[in-house]
Amino acid sequence: MTTPLLEARGLSKHYPFPRSVRQWVGNAPARVLRAVDDVDLTVESGRTLGVVGETGSGKSTLGRLLLRLERPTSGQVLIDGSSPDTAGAARAHQLRRDVQVVLQDPYTSLNPYLTIGSAIEEVLTVGGMTSREERRARVAELLEQVGFPAAWSERKPGQLSGGGRQRVSIARALAAGPRLIVADEPVSALDVSVQAQVLNLFQRLQRELDLAYVFITHDLAVLERIADRVVVLYLGRVVETGPADALFAGPAHPYTQALLNAAPALGRSRSTSSAVAGELPDPASPPAGCTFHTRCPFVMDVCRTTRPRLTPIAGGLQAACHLHEGSTPDPDPPATP
Ligand SMILES: Nc1ncnc2c1ncn2[C@@H]1O[C@H](COP(=O)(O)OP(=O)(O)OP(=O)(O)O)[C@@H](O)[C@H]1O
What is the spatial distance between Cα 335 and Cα 32, in angstroms, rounded to a whole number? Predict the structure, then answer.
Protein backbone atom coordinates (compact mmCIF):
# COMPACT_ATOMS: atom_id res chain seq x y z
CA MET A 1 0.00 0.00 0.00
CA THR A 2 1.35 3.47 -0.89
CA THR A 3 1.79 6.10 1.82
CA PRO A 4 -0.89 8.81 1.55
CA LEU A 5 0.22 12.38 1.00
CA LEU A 6 -1.66 13.52 4.11
CA GLU A 7 -2.95 11.40 6.93
CA ALA A 8 -4.73 12.25 10.17
CA ARG A 9 -4.74 9.59 12.87
CA GLY A 10 -7.06 9.86 15.85
CA LEU A 11 -7.05 13.64 15.54
CA SER A 12 -8.84 15.50 18.35
CA LYS A 13 -9.12 19.10 19.48
CA HIS A 14 -10.87 19.67 22.79
CA TYR A 15 -11.27 23.24 24.01
CA PRO A 16 -11.45 23.65 27.78
CA PHE A 17 -14.32 25.79 29.10
CA PRO A 18 -13.53 28.23 31.88
CA ARG A 19 -14.82 26.82 35.18
CA SER A 20 -17.86 28.59 36.50
CA VAL A 21 -17.87 29.67 40.15
CA ARG A 22 -20.24 26.79 40.97
CA GLN A 23 -17.82 24.32 39.43
CA TRP A 24 -14.96 25.74 41.53
CA VAL A 25 -17.00 25.53 44.71
CA GLY A 26 -18.33 22.06 43.91
CA ASN A 27 -14.97 21.00 42.47
CA ALA A 28 -16.78 19.61 39.42
CA PRO A 29 -14.54 18.56 36.53
CA ALA A 30 -13.90 21.27 33.92
CA ARG A 31 -15.97 20.78 30.79
CA VAL A 32 -14.41 20.51 27.37
CA LEU A 33 -15.87 21.15 23.95
CA ARG A 34 -14.92 18.36 21.56
CA ALA A 35 -14.61 20.45 18.39
CA VAL A 36 -12.83 17.58 16.59
CA ASP A 37 -12.99 14.12 18.08
CA ASP A 38 -10.92 11.12 17.00
CA VAL A 39 -10.89 11.83 13.27
CA ASP A 40 -9.01 9.57 10.85
CA LEU A 41 -8.61 10.58 7.23
CA THR A 42 -6.24 10.25 4.29
CA VAL A 43 -5.64 12.33 1.18
CA GLU A 44 -3.85 10.93 -1.85
CA SER A 45 -1.67 12.99 -4.24
CA GLY A 46 -3.68 14.80 -6.89
CA ARG A 47 -7.05 13.99 -5.26
CA THR A 48 -9.68 16.01 -3.44
CA LEU A 49 -11.12 15.19 -0.05
CA GLY A 50 -14.30 17.14 0.72
CA VAL A 51 -15.23 17.91 4.32
CA VAL A 52 -18.87 18.81 4.93
CA GLY A 53 -21.12 19.43 7.91
CA GLU A 54 -23.38 22.06 9.41
CA THR A 55 -22.02 25.14 11.09
CA GLY A 56 -20.19 24.18 14.28
CA SER A 57 -19.47 20.62 13.15
CA GLY A 58 -15.71 21.16 13.43
CA LYS A 59 -14.73 21.67 9.78
CA SER A 60 -12.57 24.76 10.28
CA THR A 61 -10.95 23.36 13.42
CA LEU A 62 -10.06 20.21 11.47
CA GLY A 63 -8.63 22.42 8.70
CA ARG A 64 -6.47 24.33 11.20
CA LEU A 65 -5.20 21.06 12.67
CA LEU A 66 -4.28 19.74 9.21
CA LEU A 67 -2.48 23.03 8.52
CA ARG A 68 -0.77 22.72 11.89
CA LEU A 69 -2.06 26.16 12.92
CA GLU A 70 -3.30 24.53 16.13
CA ARG A 71 -1.88 21.76 18.24
CA PRO A 72 -4.12 18.72 18.53
CA THR A 73 -5.25 17.57 21.96
CA SER A 74 -4.35 14.10 20.72
CA GLY A 75 -3.59 12.36 17.45
CA GLN A 76 -1.20 13.09 14.63
CA VAL A 77 -0.99 14.72 11.22
CA LEU A 78 1.47 12.98 8.89
CA ILE A 79 2.74 14.21 5.53
CA ASP A 80 4.23 11.43 3.41
CA GLY A 81 4.17 9.35 6.57
CA SER A 82 6.32 11.85 8.55
CA SER A 83 5.40 14.34 11.21
CA PRO A 84 7.05 17.78 10.99
CA ASP A 85 7.33 17.54 14.81
CA THR A 86 9.79 14.69 14.67
CA ALA A 87 11.50 15.44 11.33
CA GLY A 88 14.84 17.31 11.16
CA ALA A 89 14.66 21.10 10.68
CA ALA A 90 15.11 21.14 6.88
CA ARG A 91 12.65 18.31 6.32
CA ALA A 92 10.13 19.88 8.72
CA HIS A 93 10.38 23.17 6.79
CA GLN A 94 9.70 21.32 3.54
CA LEU A 95 6.78 19.38 5.03
CA ARG A 96 5.21 22.65 6.21
CA ARG A 97 5.54 24.21 2.76
CA ASP A 98 3.92 21.12 1.25
CA VAL A 99 0.56 22.08 2.81
CA GLN A 100 -0.80 25.58 2.13
CA VAL A 101 -4.10 27.34 2.74
CA VAL A 102 -6.78 29.27 0.87
CA LEU A 103 -9.39 30.89 3.12
CA GLN A 104 -12.96 32.01 2.56
CA ASP A 105 -12.42 35.71 2.79
CA PRO A 106 -9.94 37.15 0.28
CA TYR A 107 -10.95 40.62 1.55
CA THR A 108 -9.22 40.08 4.86
CA SER A 109 -6.53 37.58 3.90
CA LEU A 110 -4.78 40.05 1.55
CA ASN A 111 -3.03 43.21 2.69
CA PRO A 112 -4.92 46.08 0.96
CA TYR A 113 -1.78 48.25 0.81
CA LEU A 114 0.45 45.71 -0.95
CA THR A 115 0.34 45.25 -4.71
CA ILE A 116 -0.68 41.72 -5.63
CA GLY A 117 2.79 41.20 -7.11
CA SER A 118 4.42 42.09 -3.76
CA ALA A 119 1.96 39.86 -1.87
CA ILE A 120 3.03 36.89 -3.96
CA GLU A 121 6.72 37.89 -3.95
CA GLU A 122 6.69 37.92 -0.15
CA VAL A 123 6.01 34.18 -0.11
CA LEU A 124 8.85 33.55 -2.57
CA THR A 125 11.27 35.58 -0.40
CA VAL A 126 10.30 33.62 2.72
CA GLY A 127 10.83 30.46 0.67
CA GLY A 128 14.45 31.46 0.06
CA MET A 129 14.31 32.82 -3.52
CA THR A 130 17.01 35.47 -3.19
CA SER A 131 17.22 36.81 -6.76
CA ARG A 132 14.79 39.67 -7.41
CA GLU A 133 14.78 38.86 -11.14
CA GLU A 134 13.85 35.28 -10.45
CA ARG A 135 11.09 36.34 -8.07
CA ARG A 136 9.61 38.78 -10.60
CA ALA A 137 9.62 36.10 -13.30
CA ARG A 138 7.97 33.62 -10.96
CA VAL A 139 5.29 36.16 -9.93
CA ALA A 140 4.45 36.68 -13.64
CA GLU A 141 4.23 32.91 -14.11
CA LEU A 142 1.96 32.48 -11.06
CA LEU A 143 -0.34 35.31 -12.15
CA GLU A 144 -0.69 33.69 -15.55
CA GLN A 145 -1.39 30.33 -13.91
CA VAL A 146 -4.41 31.84 -12.14
CA GLY A 147 -5.61 33.64 -15.28
CA PHE A 148 -4.19 37.18 -14.92
CA PRO A 149 -1.83 39.08 -17.25
CA ALA A 150 1.60 39.64 -15.68
CA ALA A 151 1.04 43.43 -15.82
CA TRP A 152 -1.60 43.11 -13.11
CA SER A 153 1.14 42.57 -10.54
CA GLU A 154 1.04 46.35 -9.87
CA ARG A 155 -2.65 46.31 -8.94
CA LYS A 156 -3.88 46.47 -5.35
CA PRO A 157 -6.44 43.95 -4.01
CA GLY A 158 -9.08 46.74 -3.89
CA GLN A 159 -8.93 47.01 -7.68
CA LEU A 160 -10.01 43.40 -8.12
CA SER A 161 -13.37 41.66 -7.81
CA GLY A 162 -14.00 39.05 -5.09
CA GLY A 163 -13.20 36.27 -7.56
CA GLY A 164 -10.04 38.12 -8.63
CA ARG A 165 -8.88 38.41 -5.04
CA GLN A 166 -9.48 34.73 -4.50
CA ARG A 167 -7.29 34.02 -7.55
CA VAL A 168 -4.52 36.07 -5.89
CA SER A 169 -4.94 34.02 -2.68
CA ILE A 170 -4.55 30.89 -4.77
CA ALA A 171 -1.42 32.30 -6.48
CA ARG A 172 0.04 33.11 -3.05
CA ALA A 173 -0.62 29.56 -1.89
CA LEU A 174 0.99 28.19 -5.07
CA ALA A 175 4.07 30.39 -4.52
CA ALA A 176 5.11 28.11 -1.66
CA GLY A 177 5.17 25.13 -4.08
CA PRO A 178 2.64 23.04 -2.15
CA ARG A 179 1.49 19.53 -2.89
CA LEU A 180 -1.75 20.00 -0.96
CA ILE A 181 -4.00 23.00 -0.36
CA VAL A 182 -6.48 23.16 2.49
CA ALA A 183 -9.27 25.35 1.13
CA ASP A 184 -11.72 26.49 3.82
CA GLU A 185 -14.99 27.67 2.22
CA PRO A 186 -12.96 29.16 -0.68
CA VAL A 187 -15.97 30.04 -2.85
CA SER A 188 -18.65 30.73 -0.21
CA ALA A 189 -18.26 34.51 -0.38
CA LEU A 190 -18.56 34.58 -4.19
CA ASP A 191 -21.55 34.85 -6.55
CA VAL A 192 -22.63 31.54 -8.05
CA SER A 193 -21.27 32.34 -11.56
CA VAL A 194 -17.92 33.42 -10.10
CA GLN A 195 -17.90 30.30 -7.88
CA ALA A 196 -17.99 28.17 -11.02
CA GLN A 197 -14.99 29.99 -12.50
CA VAL A 198 -12.94 29.65 -9.32
CA LEU A 199 -13.85 25.94 -9.03
CA ASN A 200 -12.75 25.49 -12.66
CA LEU A 201 -9.45 27.10 -11.74
CA PHE A 202 -8.98 24.74 -8.76
CA GLN A 203 -9.68 21.79 -11.06
CA ARG A 204 -7.33 22.98 -13.81
CA LEU A 205 -4.50 23.59 -11.30
CA GLN A 206 -5.07 20.14 -9.85
CA ARG A 207 -4.61 18.54 -13.28
CA GLU A 208 -1.60 20.69 -14.20
CA LEU A 209 0.26 20.50 -10.89
CA ASP A 210 -0.99 17.19 -9.47
CA LEU A 211 -2.25 19.11 -6.44
CA ALA A 212 -4.30 17.52 -3.69
CA TYR A 213 -7.05 19.46 -1.90
CA VAL A 214 -8.89 19.26 1.36
CA PHE A 215 -12.01 21.20 0.43
CA ILE A 216 -13.99 22.39 3.43
CA THR A 217 -17.49 23.59 2.66
CA HIS A 218 -21.08 23.63 3.86
CA ASP A 219 -22.24 23.54 0.22
CA LEU A 220 -22.90 20.04 -1.06
CA ALA A 221 -23.08 21.23 -4.69
CA VAL A 222 -19.45 22.32 -4.45
CA LEU A 223 -18.42 18.92 -3.13
CA GLU A 224 -20.45 17.00 -5.68
CA ARG A 225 -18.53 18.82 -8.34
CA ILE A 226 -15.01 18.72 -6.95
CA ALA A 227 -14.54 15.92 -4.39
CA ASP A 228 -13.21 12.41 -4.99
CA ARG A 229 -13.88 11.39 -1.41
CA VAL A 230 -16.00 12.97 1.29
CA VAL A 231 -15.91 13.15 5.08
CA VAL A 232 -19.20 14.12 6.77
CA LEU A 233 -18.70 15.64 10.23
CA TYR A 234 -21.32 15.91 12.95
CA LEU A 235 -20.40 17.47 16.30
CA GLY A 236 -16.72 16.89 15.63
CA ARG A 237 -16.93 13.23 14.63
CA VAL A 238 -16.92 11.50 11.25
CA VAL A 239 -20.39 10.02 10.72
CA GLU A 240 -19.90 8.96 7.11
CA THR A 241 -17.00 8.80 4.67
CA GLY A 242 -16.16 7.26 1.33
CA PRO A 243 -16.05 7.84 -2.43
CA ALA A 244 -18.03 10.93 -3.45
CA ASP A 245 -19.90 9.09 -6.24
CA ALA A 246 -21.18 6.42 -3.85
CA LEU A 247 -22.04 8.93 -1.15
CA PHE A 248 -24.03 11.20 -3.44
CA ALA A 249 -25.75 8.23 -5.13
CA GLY A 250 -26.71 6.47 -1.91
CA PRO A 251 -25.82 8.16 1.38
CA ALA A 252 -25.88 5.64 4.22
CA HIS A 253 -26.05 7.79 7.35
CA PRO A 254 -29.40 9.45 8.20
CA TYR A 255 -27.52 12.72 8.74
CA THR A 256 -26.01 12.65 5.23
CA GLN A 257 -29.41 11.65 3.85
CA ALA A 258 -31.00 14.62 5.59
CA LEU A 259 -28.36 16.98 4.22
CA LEU A 260 -28.92 15.68 0.69
CA ASN A 261 -32.73 15.54 0.93
CA ALA A 262 -32.90 19.12 2.06
CA ALA A 263 -30.59 20.28 -0.72
CA PRO A 264 -32.92 20.51 -3.78
CA ALA A 265 -35.30 22.77 -1.88
CA LEU A 266 -32.44 25.18 -1.44
CA GLY A 267 -32.08 25.78 -5.16
CA ARG A 268 -28.73 26.22 -6.79
CA SER A 269 -26.71 26.33 -3.63
CA ARG A 270 -26.99 23.03 -1.79
CA SER A 271 -26.19 24.64 1.49
CA THR A 272 -26.21 22.60 4.67
CA SER A 273 -26.97 25.54 6.93
CA SER A 274 -30.38 24.97 8.51
CA ALA A 275 -30.92 22.04 6.12
CA VAL A 276 -31.55 19.39 8.75
CA ALA A 277 -34.65 19.36 10.92
CA GLY A 278 -34.20 19.90 14.64
CA GLU A 279 -31.72 21.91 16.64
CA LEU A 280 -28.02 21.16 16.63
CA PRO A 281 -27.35 20.06 20.24
CA ASP A 282 -25.03 22.10 22.43
CA PRO A 283 -21.56 20.93 21.34
CA ALA A 284 -20.36 21.35 24.94
CA SER A 285 -22.79 18.67 26.18
CA PRO A 286 -23.55 16.41 23.22
CA PRO A 287 -26.21 13.70 23.53
CA ALA A 288 -25.17 10.28 24.85
CA GLY A 289 -24.86 7.34 22.47
CA CYS A 290 -25.13 8.42 18.85
CA THR A 291 -24.90 12.22 18.99
CA PHE A 292 -27.36 12.44 16.05
CA HIS A 293 -30.08 10.45 17.83
CA THR A 294 -31.98 13.58 18.96
CA ARG A 295 -32.65 14.48 15.30
CA CYS A 296 -32.69 11.06 13.65
CA PRO A 297 -35.97 9.83 12.08
CA PHE A 298 -34.83 6.19 12.53
CA VAL A 299 -33.76 6.41 16.18
CA MET A 300 -33.72 3.10 18.11
CA ASP A 301 -33.16 2.42 21.82
CA VAL A 302 -29.53 1.44 21.27
CA CYS A 303 -28.85 4.84 19.66
CA ARG A 304 -29.61 6.62 22.96
CA THR A 305 -26.99 4.70 24.89
CA THR A 306 -24.27 3.32 22.61
CA ARG A 307 -22.04 5.27 20.27
CA PRO A 308 -21.88 3.55 16.86
CA ARG A 309 -18.48 2.87 15.28
CA LEU A 310 -17.61 3.60 11.66
CA THR A 311 -18.61 0.41 9.85
CA PRO A 312 -17.71 -0.53 6.26
CA ILE A 313 -20.78 -0.88 4.06
CA ALA A 314 -21.41 -1.23 0.32
CA GLY A 315 -19.75 1.03 -2.28
CA GLY A 316 -16.65 1.65 -0.16
CA LEU A 317 -18.65 3.85 2.22
CA GLN A 318 -18.29 3.75 5.98
CA ALA A 319 -21.02 5.02 8.30
CA ALA A 320 -21.23 5.34 12.07
CA CYS A 321 -24.85 4.23 12.46
CA HIS A 322 -26.49 1.32 14.29
CA LEU A 323 -28.74 0.76 11.25
CA HIS A 324 -25.70 -0.47 9.36
CA GLU A 325 -24.05 -2.61 11.98
CA GLY A 326 -23.95 -6.15 10.68
CA SER A 327 -24.45 -5.03 7.06
CA THR A 328 -22.35 -6.84 4.45
CA PRO A 329 -19.53 -4.69 3.13
CA ASP A 330 -17.82 -5.08 -0.23
CA PRO A 331 -15.35 -7.99 -0.30
CA ASP A 332 -12.35 -5.65 -0.02
CA PRO A 333 -13.37 -2.37 1.67
CA PRO A 334 -10.78 0.37 2.13
CA ALA A 335 -9.21 0.26 5.58
CA THR A 336 -9.26 4.02 6.24
CA PRO A 337 -11.34 6.97 5.00
N1 LIG B 1 -10.82 28.57 19.92
C2 LIG B 1 -11.95 27.99 20.28
N3 LIG B 1 -12.30 27.92 21.59
C4 LIG B 1 -13.44 27.31 22.00
N5 LIG B 1 -14.32 26.73 21.16
C6 LIG B 1 -14.03 26.77 19.84
C7 LIG B 1 -12.85 27.38 19.33
N8 LIG B 1 -12.84 27.25 17.98
C9 LIG B 1 -13.97 26.59 17.65
N10 LIG B 1 -14.68 26.31 18.77
C11 LIG B 1 -15.95 25.56 18.82
O12 LIG B 1 -15.73 24.32 18.17
C13 LIG B 1 -16.88 23.92 17.44
C14 LIG B 1 -16.50 23.70 16.00
O15 LIG B 1 -16.19 24.95 15.41
P16 LIG B 1 -15.70 25.09 13.90
O17 LIG B 1 -15.52 26.56 13.62
O18 LIG B 1 -14.54 24.20 13.67
O19 LIG B 1 -16.96 24.53 13.10
P20 LIG B 1 -17.32 24.71 11.56
O21 LIG B 1 -17.96 23.43 11.14
O22 LIG B 1 -16.13 25.16 10.80
O23 LIG B 1 -18.41 25.85 11.61
P24 LIG B 1 -18.63 27.05 10.55
O25 LIG B 1 -19.17 26.42 9.31
O26 LIG B 1 -19.62 27.93 11.25
O27 LIG B 1 -17.29 27.71 10.35
C28 LIG B 1 -17.91 25.03 17.62
O29 LIG B 1 -18.82 24.65 18.65
C30 LIG B 1 -17.08 26.22 18.03
O31 LIG B 1 -17.82 27.11 18.84
Answer: 30
Q: Where are the alpha helices (DSSP H) in 116-250?
A: 116-126, 132-145, 162-175, 192-209, 220-226, 244-249
What is the distance in A from the centroid of ligand 1 to the CA of 60? 7
Ligand 1 closest atom vs CA 17:
4
Pairing of strands 74-79, 6-16: antiparallel
In three-state secondary structure terms, 205 is helix
Q: What is the ipTM of this complex?
A: 0.97
Could you give the C-alpha distances from 216 to 47, 76, 77, 82, 123, in angstroms and in order?
A: 14, 19, 17, 23, 23
Most confident of 21-35, 226-240, 318-332: 226-240
DSSP 42-60: EE-TT-EEEEE-STTSSHH
User: Does 59 contact ligand 1 (Cβ within 6 A)?
Assistant: yes
CA distance 149 to 36: 42
Taking only the tens place, the pLDDT of each residue in 207-223 is 999 999 999 998 888 89
53 pocket-lining for ligand 1 (C-beta < 6 Å): yes
Please give the single-letter amino acid code of residue 288: A
Domains of the chain: 6-15+31-113+156-324 (3.40.50.300)
Going by alpha carbons, the residue nearest to atom 26 of ligand 1 is 55
Instruction: Please work out whether the CB of residue 327 comes within 6 Å of at least one atom of ligand 1.
Output: no
Is residue 33 within 8 A of residue 17, CB to CB? The reply is yes
